[in-house]
Amino acid sequence: MADHNDIGKRGxxxxxxxxxxxxxxxxxxxxxxxxxxxxxVALQLEPAELVFVEVKARSxxxxxxxxTAVTPAKKKRIFKVADSYLYEKQMRTVPVRFDxxxxxxxxxxxxxxxxxxxxxxxxxxY
Length: 126
Known about the structure:
Layout: H1 4-21, E1 25-33, E2 36-45, E3 48-57, H2 72-88, E4 96-104, E5 112-120
Parallel strand pairs: 3-4
Antiparallel strand pairs: 1-2, 2-3, 4-5
């Protein structure tokens, strides 16, 4: 059985492939700022938006849905990293969106994938 890191890496690969198939351009993967990370940064062309994607992958279908692991604390860390990314890349005026891609059975040939577009916003924290 694959370990936690292998499942996460496989989930991110699956998510990047899904986004590319939908026409997104992958700009960065595993962008880090301090101790936080954004799994995927992508550009959606129509409508033009910079999309920060959190990937949650599980090996099976038992337990809570993967997307429920995006807690308010996790969202705060994602916003912090996104702000750093926008500042570093000088993209502060670009429209942004925060998505979650949840994957169950990530270690199989036929994973279950769900893409939650615009899954959360900064306003959700207040």
